[in-house]
Amino acid sequence: MVEAAVPDRSISGAKTQSHSLSIRRLRKVYGDLAAVDDVSFEVERGKFLTLLGPSGSGKTTILMSIAGFVQPTSGSILLDDKDITALPPDKRNFGMVFQGYALFPHMSVEDNIWFPLRVRGVKRAEAQKSVMASLELVQMAHLAKRLPTQLSGGQQQRVALARALVFQPDLLLLDEPLSALDKKLRADLQWELKSLHNRLGATFIYVTHDQEEALSMSDDIIILRDGKIEQMGGPGELYERPATRFVADFLGKSNFINGTVAGTESGSFTYKAGDHALVQAGAAEPAGPGGSVLIALRPEKLTVSQAEPATRNRVPGTIDAFNYYGANYHFQVRTQALGDLIVTAPAWKCEVDPAIGNQVWLGWEPDASVVVRDN
């Protein structure tokens, strides 16, 4: 285990020692409700893992169980293969960053940073080097003498982060730390957090319901639903190859096409959706002809044009609504066979007149979509 606080092991220097975590068949029951239901996963040393899911999915309960604030009904938690399930929070040496900052308002910034070292018996003079190194890491050293009430929300969150890192935690646990910030500041701090993770090499476990946060920062993502793991993997894997309708719709947005398998080709199959014969490539062969299939298609993988495209998959439609977002247009296109489809198109070279009622063509390549299981 890492020592609690040794000033000459400054976080401003080389990467910190990282640790692995194992969650085995974790279950937490409140009355008749299983908030976490038989969850198992591994976190490799130095990884940035995000627990992602809607409210009530179990992500915070898992994080609080890891921290030691929630005692599981059953299952085990192992740090570097050592069982810590029954270990109290103050014995786990984990750093914790909350949404609400949880700073002491009567203490200066540097005193807030010193606090976790003080409770570990480290004297002020002895701790000063570690305190300043931690503040420099989050670019807050110049505000060391200020009170939390004199700081912006983003600055307070940086102080909370520095406080969680100053004692060299074995894991850093972050419970929706950016959700109280405005959109631009949140995006800026996402970059900073990822950069900090890369510099430290420590193991981060992050909880959020924000899909963009999860995609932009994580090495691995676990998507939770009703206390169970729906799917886990790298950001690109989950986004490009969602296994279920829930994942495809929760992690980003998707259009869904219900079809009937018509036949198979080499590396692909054809399916019927309304009057259209469409092609799906790169998928495991579904049930034989006549079987049902559900296709997920990301809005940005559709093309929208005035002229009929040359792609194998194409349908005509009418623009029912559109929104302009600067970089992109988002179109809602009504089609006779497939219902309403959402399309994202770059605004700077949009090939259609963005007007309600405009007749357009939609097209997509056979490998642009994926087969998913229904919920």
Description:
With 375 residues, the chain is of the alpha+beta class. It has 2 domains: 21-248, P-loop containing nucleotide triphosphate hydrolases (Rossmann fold, 3-Layer(aba) Sandwich); 253-371, Nucleic acid-binding proteins (OB fold (Dihydrolipoamide Acetyltransferase, E2P), Beta Barrel), CATH 2.40.50. The chain contains 8 helices and 20 strands. It has a 6-stranded mixed beta sheet with strand order 6-7-8-3-9-10, sandwiched between helices. The protein is elongated and about 75 Å long. The two termini are 43 Å apart. The model is unreliable at 1-10 (pLDDT under 50).
Give the arrangement of secondary structure elements.
Blueprint: E1 21-30, E2 33-43, E3 48-52, H1 59-67, E4 74-79, E5 82-83, E6 94-97, H2 109-118, H3 124-137, H4 153-165, E7 171-175, H5 183-200, E8 204-208, H6 211-217, E9 220-225, E10 228-233, H7 235-240, H8 245-250, E11 255-265, E12 268-273, E13 276-281, E14 292-297, E15 303-305, E16 313-324, E17 328-335, E18 339-346, E19 359-364, E20 369-371
Parallel strand pairs: 3-8, 3-9, 6-7, 7-8
Antiparallel strand pairs: 1-2, 1-4, 4-5, 9-10, 11-12, 11-14, 12-13, 14-20, 15-19, 16-17, 16-19, 17-18
